Amino acid sequence: MTTWNLRRRPGRALGLVLLGFLTLLVLRRLDWSNLTRPWLRRRQLGLQAKDQNFMLEDSTFWIFGGSVHYFRVPKEYWRDRLLKMKACGLNTLTTYVPWNLHEPERGRFDFSGNLDLEAFVLTAAEIGLWVILRPGPYICSEIDLGGLPSWLLQDSGMRLRTTYKGFTNAVDLYFDHLMPRVVPLQYKHGGPIIAVQVENEYGSYNKDPTYMPYIKKALEDRGIEELLLTSDNKDGLSNGAVDGVLATINLQSQHDLQLLSTFLFTVQGARPKMVMEYWTGWFDSWGGTHNILDSSDYDAVLTEAGDYTAKYLQLRDFFGSISGTPLPPPPDPLPKTAYESVTPAFYLSLWDALKYMEAPINSEQPVNMENLPVNNGNGQSFGYTLYETTIASSGVLSAFVRDRGQVFVNTVSIGFLDYKRKEINIPLIQGYTTLRILVENCGRVNYGEIDNQRKGLIGNIYLNDSPLSKFRIYSLDMKKTFFQRFSFDEWNKVPEAPTFPAFFLGALSVALSPSDTFMKLEGWEKGVVFINGQNLGRYWNIGPQETLYLPGTWLDQGINQVIVFEEKMAGSVIQFTETPHLGRSRYIN
Hints:
Elements (H helix, E strand, L loop, with lengths): L1 E2 L13 E3 L18 H4 L5 E4 L2 E4 L2 E2 L2 E5 L10 H10 L4 E5 L2 H4 L14 H11 L2 E5 L30 H18 L10 E5 L13 H11 L5 E7 L3 H4 L5 E6 L2 H4 L1 H10 L6 E4 L11 E3 L17 H14 L22 E4 H4 L7 E3 L20 E8 L3 E4 L2 E2 L1 E6 L2 E6 L5 E4 L6 E8 L15 E2 L4 E2 L2 E2 L3 E6 L3 H5 L7 E2 L8 E9 L6 E4 L5 E6 L2 E7 L6 E4 L7 E9 L8 E3 L7 E3 L2
Parallel strand pairs: 1-6, 6-7, 7-8, 8-9, 9-10, 10-11, 11-12, 13-35
Antiparallel strand pairs: 2-6, 3-4, 4-5, 14-27, 14-28, 15-26, 16-22, 16-26, 17-21, 17-24, 18-23, 19-20, 19-22, 24-25, 28-33, 29-32, 29-34, 30-31, 30-33
Helix pairs in contact: 2-4
């Protein structure tokens, strides 16, 4: 399966995956505009794993698949990316379903806009692609908490990915809303979904032997009737297998392909061998190098901006040589533009902006993000949280900060606390002074031990071994609604010596039809960028990434609002370029 990794943040790149080693069935394009035709209703068998072959109805079937995650690609570009898959010779799309995005608050579901799963699947069908759906509830996918909603962590006893009642109750409610959207899209109902994955890489987690059977039953009880699959790396394969479910493997190298026969035969005998994920690269970390195996941004077949790479051309030649019919021509790359630099004209320090925030939460002790009484009782998922209290002496301050906390005495920054640095010296002060800690949630771990991924201040803060109390806590989630609270009459002209942290406001002028571009914040240190209210992503001068991809579809002809939240040091301009700069590269084995 060729994975088309289109992430905006460093993440494990998935790549070429060949599903099965069978004869290619060249599929004729179906008219998906009318899914109720009688000949479509006669579908009965679907995709089957028979002996060593995959079969679709009565024909041997060889799947060439690739992944596009709809929630990571602007909806306006879905068709472009899927047409490029088809032009490469692929016949199957795989995609995850992110629970945390679809249910951002308990009981409130969102399947609109960029989260319109049904529209995405039907677009794939119109183009002539089959679909393998990976609905989780845990998906890994280099997404926050592996796709699980952060509000699950409000329960201090929560045991994620087990049959703990607090978890299964939430999964059941989610599946009750998700599966009615999926069931009509299945192959046997005339749709393109030919297989559904049961959870993801559970064999590496393996906390509860009853969990995977529970997920399988939860899918089947809600009408999922296509071929079920598991997906595990070689270390988790034996523990992730479920009766009645085809086991598939995830791997990274040609050498690992040799393990297929041994591992899969041990688990399930002589059944079709299937690679669900073939990782063509690896993720990057802040402060490190840009890790590559070959030619593209995170070593996927298309870049984040949907551009072709050398891998794409090689794969198209390969698939074209065995398809038996000419492949459709690849769509033209989307145009790129290097817009004129933007000079921020206005500025608002964080301290001046606090009056536009919701009223602070008063608490005797610090409260972690997930348990803050905000967002209709669902806590805070992303962004920053500001903790304030009053101190009357200097000394050693100690705290568990998740993930990074900038410490201020009044409005003067005195340093940072993080995983490595848990103590900081408070300088000599006189009288009562405001202590502030601005904590950034840098993202919850998506793989491995994820039960303890609560963010903010965890537990008490101590000054000279004595716990502090009486906190004022501001939730700075920086969602679209966050900036709507600002009174733009109160923005100031940018001074020669701004007070940090601060928001900087500029205008990007687009004269013609908007095009894709890449934003570069040279001279800025660390923060987040927002374009017309859309969160473009983090930047940090420690690299490796030096630019942020800005889709043209997020821009308007005319004036576009650019807001930069900078923690420490602002540059003079915001630059734009036609090409991405992803940092110093390091080839990995």
